[in-house]
From TrEMBL:
GO terms for biological process: nucleotide metabolic process; thiamine metabolic process. GO terms for molecular function: ITPase activity; metal ion binding; nucleotide binding. It is an enzyme of class 3 (hydrolase). The lineage of its organism: Bacteria, Candidatus Giovannoniibacteriota. This is inosine/xanthosine triphosphatase. The keyword Magnesium applies.
Length: 92
C-alpha cells in the first residue's frame, strides 16, 4: 500500500495527517522484491510509463488513476488532513 503522511509542528505539538491509500499492481511489487527495483524502475519495465522518474512528476497515483489524481494532489490530501487539529483547536 502507498500512503503519504504529513506532520506539522506548531512549536509545541505535532499535527498528523494522511492521504488516501492505494495498492500497487502485484507485478510491480514482484519486481521491487525480486530485483530490488524502485517503483519508478518497475513502472518503466512493466510499461506503465516511459519515464524513469515518474515519482517526481505525476507519480504512480497519476498513472493508475489515469490523471484523476496526481502526486501533487495526493500530497495535498495529507497536508489538509494534518491541518484538521489546527483548524479545530477547541476539539483537539
Amino acid at each position: 500500500m502507498d500512503i503519504t503522511m504529513c506532520a506539522i509542528f506548531d512549536g509545541k505539538n505535532f499535527h498528523l495527517g494522511g492521504s488516501s491509500a492505494f495498492e500497487y499492481p502485484k507485478s510491480m511489487i514482484d519486481l521491487v522484491f525480486s530485483k530490488d527495483y524502485e517503483i519508478d524502475e518497475a513502472a518503466k519495465e512493466i510499461g506503465f510509463s516511459h519515464d524513469s522518474n515518474i515519482g517526481e512528476r505525476e507519480g504512480m497515483i497519476g498513472t493508475l488513476t489515469k490523471g484523476r489524481l496526481d502526486r501533487k494532489g495526493y500530497n495535498k490530501q495529507a497536508v489538509i488532513t494534518a491541518l484538521i487539529h489546527l483548524l479545530n483547536p477547541e476539539h483537539y
